[in-house]
Amino acid sequence: MSQEILNLTCKQLRDSIAKGDVKSSDAVSAVFERIEKYDTRIGAFLSTFKTEALTQAGKVDEKIAKGQSVGALAGVPIAVKDNMCTTFGPTSCASKILENFHSPYNATVIEKLLAADAVIIGKTNLDEFAMGSSTENSGLKKTVNPWDKDRVPGGSSGGSAAAVAAQMCFAAMGSDTGGSIRQPASFCGVAGLKPTYGRVSRYGLVAYGSSLDQIGPLTKNIEDCALMLNVIAGHDEKDSTSVDETTAFLCDFLSGANKEVKDLKIAVVPQLFEGADEQVIQSIKDAIEVYKKLGAQIIEIQMPHFEYAIAAYYLIATAEASSNLARYDGVHYGHRTKNAGDYIEVYTKSRAEAFGTEVKRRIMLGTYALSSGYYDAYYLKALKVRNLIRGDFTAAFEKTDCIIMPTSPTTAFKIGEKTADPLQMYLADVYTIAANLAGIPAISIPCGFDKNNLPIGLQIIAPAFGEKKLLQIARMFESQTDFHKKNPQL
Amino acid sequence: MTDSDYKIIVGLEIHVQLATRTKMFCGCELAFAEDPNSRVCPTCLGLPGALPVMNAQAVEFAILTATALNCKIAEFTKWDRKSYYYPDLPKNYQISQYDLPIGSNGFIEIPLSDGQTKKIRILRVHLEEDAGKNVHTSGNFSQVDLNRAGTPLLEIVTEPDMNSAEEVRALAIELQRIVRFLGVSQADMQKGHMRFEPNVNLHIERGGSTSKTPITEVKNLNSFKALEKSVAFEAVRQFDEFLDTGICLQSGNKKTFGWDDVKEVTVLQREKEEAHDYRYFPDPDLVPVVVNEEWLERIKTKLCELPLKMQSRFISEYGLSDYDAGVLTTDKEMAKYFDDTVKTGADAKRVCNLITQTGIKIANEKGCGVAQLGIEPTRLAALAKITDDGKISATAAVTVFEKMLESKDSPDKIAQQLDLLQRSDEGELEKIVDEVITANAQAVEDVKSGGKKSKKAHGFLMGQVMQKSKGKANPQIVAKILGSKLGS
Ligand SMILES: [Zn+2]
Question: Residue A200: CB partners within 8 Å, gap ≥ 6?
Answer without folding.
Answer: A109, A214, A215, A216, A229, A232, A233, A234, A242
